[in-house]
Design a protein that fits this description.
CATH topology: Jelly Rolls
Strand order of the largest sheet: 1-2-12-4-10
Number of domains: 1
Number of helices: 1
Radius of gyration: 22 Å
CATH architecture: Sandwich
Length: 175
Amino acid sequence: MKRNIIISLLALVMIVCGVNAYNVTLECQEAGEEVLGGTGFDLSKSSLAETQLDINDTADFIFSVGSADLIDLYIDMEASTTASVLQWTYYFTDDKEEASATTWYAEDGKSVASAIATTHGASKMVHSWTPATTTQSYKNISIEPLAAERMKITFTGVTATSTISADVLRRINRN
């Protein structure tokens, strides 16, 4: 009897408070707009305009991470040859604004050598993609975990000329 009363009271409290463990609301926020309240994910978007990358050219894409738990990087690439290669490197900083003294920290590349040893790379971690086509190609890469205030992605054209654009979707879990 007591058990039924306790369960009934808990159900009533959940109804009154509007708690629904299975209800997830998605919010969408374009760059520059204020974040709306609510639950679910705040999907904030940043964008790198279409950029022509020649061999060894670079393009920096700098944006605020905010309190994102995960970033989805969307890359759109049209290569001039099937041998075109796009490379990119992630950098992080806790500086809130760009300044001449901003220190950017490269992503760590590491491998586990044994149960008691981890080897870290001597330089930055370089990501690479060869779409092997001259038609428009698309890639989605998830980046986590994030703890920095801001992030920079440096794209580099390798082997041939390519046209790229990139979007970042910041995902903030508000549950």
